[in-house]
Automatic annotation (TrEMBL):
Keywords: NAD, Oxidoreductase
Family stated for the protein in its record: Belongs to the aldehyde dehydrogenase family.
Protein name: Aldehyde dehydrogenase
Organism: Saccharibacillus brassicae
Aldehyde dehydrogenase domain sequence ranges: 27-439
Residues that span the membrane, as ranges: none
Record-level Gene Ontology MF annotations: aldehyde dehydrogenase (NAD+) activity
GO cellular component entries: cytoplasm
Any Gene Ontology biological process: aldehyde metabolic process
Amino acid sequence: MTTQPNTASLTDSISAHDLVLRQRRFFRTGQTKSVAYRIEALKRLRQGIEEYQPRILAALRADLNKSEAEGYSSEIRLVLGELDYTLANLEQWAAPRVVPTSEQIAGGASAIHPEPYGVALVIAPWNYPFQLAFSPLVGAISAGNCAVLKPSELTPSVSKLSADLIRACFPDEYVAVMEGEVETSTELLREKFDYIFFTGSTPVGKVVMRAAAEHLTPTTLELGGKSPAIVHKDANLQRAAQSLVRGKFLNAGQTCVAPDYLLVHADVQEELLREIKLEIEDKYGADVTQNPDFPHIVNDRNFDRLSRFLNDGEALLGGRTVREQRLIEPTLLQGIDWNSPVMQDEIFGPILPVMTYTELDPVLEQIVDRPKPLALYLFTRDQEVQDLVLNTVSFGGGCVNETLLHMSSHELPFGGVGASGMGSYHGRQSFETFSHHKSMLVRSV
Ligand code: NAD
């Protein structure tokens, strides 16, 4: 089968209201409730992604200057992984789960039946514009929903490509893409969806939740925040440096789970920073402005916002910018404290503020005083320190002696807590997120 664009598509002209109506009508035919239908749809999507792979990579290069290697490993590969894992397990996940019945209900049998919510809305951000649109979509389809996907307008090439790819795979009444700016999101959010899955900033998350409250629509919010990295005095510094550089500068720091700032024990600060410098040079070259594969900042507004942070403290490394390309060098900032402007909001760029500590407790208090982070990364071999941090700080998820990798495990539900989000997905959790769990007691008569 070759996936061909369906030129009869209506989503270019149809209103959000009519699109949701069409999807609701289709949902009521019951076709998507068949697990075989969902499996066929997921296979079609997989094939479509494979066929569109060169276009996906070109769009990621056009919008963010992502190299093919980075585009494949951090976007396409993760979606294909979700698809394969879901295809291998869906029949088992979708089956009713028989559970024990309380003794006082004699003659009863109990089971939990996962069922699709109905019509789902997926709103995606620009930073991993392919992965963060299509991974949730895998969950929505696997659970048997119809879905409308709203990609980010800030990555127009990926937005257009997503619309073409979905159109080539599915009829609008089943899965559709609605491209557009904030007005399109607003128009969609006025409609009554049965589930909303939003990935983006905390302020817009509040807008989405207010709109969802109007219809009492259950919602997952995958938001951002300032994720700390803590390097304790006993850490393996070379490993920590490698992992921090990979985690912070992937996609030029425009990663929701990037370490936002670094807290390093004073005893090892000098050596760690030396290792980080070596690692940056090794990975990106001594002059990153000459590296054709270092991703660019998404737009001028973010470039200007990030450039202002470079006046904070002093740049221990990097600090140069190239406005025409919206390129900012990997930068380490020293002379920062908790009140510095760069420490007030999520940075979302290749700038790493560094602060030192001698006692861990006051540092943990500072973190706990702030909104709950999406991620936390701790580098130490000391089990007591690991236990202390894990038991003291609430955060979405994280790693010890690593960065980012918790979000690529199918077995670990991924999501935030408090200001960094609510709900989670990936692997089985995506299926569960997009399913209602209908509890049934059947009594023999
Ligand atoms: P954003 O909140 O500005 O936009 C996200 C989506 O919402 C876009 O599709 C946009 O069109 C839409 N939108 C924007 N303003 C809107 C409004 N007023 N009403 C309705 N819809 C609106 O976020 P962004 O700039 O695209 O992404 C960056 C943010 O996303 C960062 O905070 C980052 O941490 C977060 N993020 C979180 C995750 C996660 O998995 N937790 C992943 C990636 C990004």
